Amino acid sequence: MKIGFIGTGNMGTILIDAFVESHAVPPENITITNRTIKKALTIQERYNDVNVKHSGEEVAKESDVIFICVKPLEIRPLLTKLLPNLNKEQCIVSITSPVSVEQLESVVPCQIARIIPSITNQALAGVSLFTYGQSMGKDYKDYLWRLFSQLSTPIEIENNVTRVASDIVSCGPAFFSYLLQRFIDAAVSETEISHEQATSLASEMMIGMGKLLEKQIFTLPTLQEKVCVKGGVTGEGIKVLEGELGEIFHHLFHKTHDKYYEDISEVDDQFK
Question: Secretion signal: which residues (predicted)?
Answer without folding.
Answer: none
